Amino acid sequence: VNQTARIMPTRTLANFFLGSQLGSSTSNPVMSPTLTHLKVGYNEHYSFGIQQQFSPKTIFEIYYVGNHGVHLQATDDFNDPTPATGAVQARRPYQPWGTITMQSQDLGDTYQSLQSKIEHRTANGFSGLVSYTWSKFLQSNESPALGGNSGYEKTYSPFNTPQNLAMSGTYELPLGRGRMYLAKSPLAVDALLGGWQVQTIIVLRSGLPFNPVVGSDVANTGVGSQRPNLNPAGGSATFTKSLSKWFDPTRYVAAPALNYGQVRAFTLTSDMYRQYDASIFKNFALSGESILSFRAEIFNLPNTNSFNAPGATITSSGCCAVTSTSVPSRDIQFALKYNF
After folding, report:
1. How confident is the model at residue 1 (pLDDT cuts 50, 70, 90)?
2. How far apart are the C-alpha atoms of 158 and 265, rounded to whole Å?
3. What's the rounded Cα separation, in Å, for the pair 281 and 296?
4. In contact, 115 and 65? CB cutoff 8 Å
5. pLDDT tops 60 at residue 120
């Protein structure tokens, strides 16, 4: 809605937009409409599993877990012209509108996974948990970068992480009264050295998928991040992955002029994610049932790097270089808490 300065707003059907005409020479308005009658999106969940107890404290589980999403919220381009020469706006099907982004419900997804877990409950001062998931996450939706208004594809989800391993554990150090070492130590020694616990969390998982793209409007349709084609000649025989060249850009070529490229989405993956955290803590019992708690926590203990996806514009001189990390550098913090 546009309003010319210092004009009393007297909106009528004859002059609804007050001032600048809709789609005047200074404006090709954009719109983001939705259907009048919306379907109800839903998810179907299904699983089947087996549990086996190996000992009084150790349990193993393995499951098949699936999920199917139907009529999920998405956005679709609705006013892209077909590839051709000439100004993009003049060739849009619905004038005088610019881009029309329909709030649609044509996104569907499927998730299939094998999930396993082995858990050792606290015994002899130790408890631990190891879980591993192998999965595939697919989705189907409109992809304007693949074909404008009519570009649809079924491919990997941007959240697809096929391998996921997580391990955690707690160990009470065998020092102090009632323990293996220093079992008969004086109270002062027990208060200082006894009752310490260490914990760790380790997470390793596949990197996230990303798209190779071209840096120009090859199809001349106003759609950004268009896809390339696979290079019929293949890539470089001497290519070696590095932080400056995470993938081989010579495997791809820009589509011919006035055409969309056909490489599917999310066929490349970033660096794997690594998380190594640890902590050590102790409770000091004080008089009057009060407790003094000390904790030291170390995040990214070995200071190991995990990297985000690289720049993926194959026509850019800086293509394929990794420029950021997905986890922060080592961080150490201490805490002291008094409960009374």
Report:
1. very low
2. 9
3. 6
4. yes
5. yes
Q: Are 97 and 29 in contact (CB under 8 A)?
A: yes
The CA distance from 159 to 332, in Å, is 30
Tell me what pLDDT residue 187 has: 73
Confidence band for 264, pLDDT divided at 50, 70 and 90: very high
Answer yes or no: are the C-beta atoms of 72 and 95 closer than 8 Å. no
- CA-to-CA distance for 78 and 318, rounded, in angstroms? 33
Confidence of residue 192 (pLDDT cuts 50, 70, 90): confident
For residue 313, list its beta bridge partners. 213
Which pair of structure tokens corresponds to residue 38? 């919306």
Burial 65-91 (b: 16+ CB within 10 A, else e): beeebeebebbbbbbbbebeeeebeeb
> CA dist 76 to 143, 151, 156, 189, 218, Å?
8, 10, 18, 69, 20
User: Where do the H-state alpha helices sit in 131-215?
Assistant: 144-147, 187-193
What residues have CB less than 8 Å from 126, skipping those under 6 apart?
120, 169, 170, 171, 172
Q: Which two structure tokens, joined as six digits, stand for 261? A: 């490229």
The pair of three-digit structure tokens given for residue 158, joined into one six-digit string = 């941007």
Shortest CA distance to 148 belongs to which of 87, 97, 102? Answer: 102
- List, in sequence order, every residue forming a beta bridge with 74; answer none if it has no partner: 104
pLDDT of amino acid 263:
95
Taking the C-alpha atoms of residue 202 and residue 267, their distance in angstroms, rounded to an integer, is 27
Least confident range from 27-36, 73-82, 217-226, 290-299: namely 27-36
Mean pLDDT of 293-308: 94
CA 328 from chain centre, in angstroms, equals: 16
DSSP for 53-66 reads EEETTEEEEEEEEE
Work out the average pLDDT over 322-328: 93
Query: Does the pLDDT of residue 25 top 60, yes or no?
Result: no
